[in-house]
Amino acid sequence: MALYLLYEAASGYSLFLAHGLDEIGQNTEAVRGSVSDLNRFGKVVQLTAFHPFDSALDALNQCNSVSEGKFARKSLAVWS
What we know:
3 strands; snoRNA binding; Nop56/Nop58; Nucleolar protein 56-like; NOP58/56_N; 28% strand; alpha+beta
């Protein structure tokens, strides 16, 4: 099963596909070690998509939407 990770940064949203991190209950220290080293991170995670924010105001609105749960509700509605 594919594991996608959504990362929000000041510049926009990044969607990553993670390889080898999909086991339930996997050792937290092993996962943390895989993503803390840039060289190992590149082998475990692949950038799938990037959506930059249009402006500082757009970034603020997106941040607020995430914190209020609007982003999740809107995104999950697409998949239901």
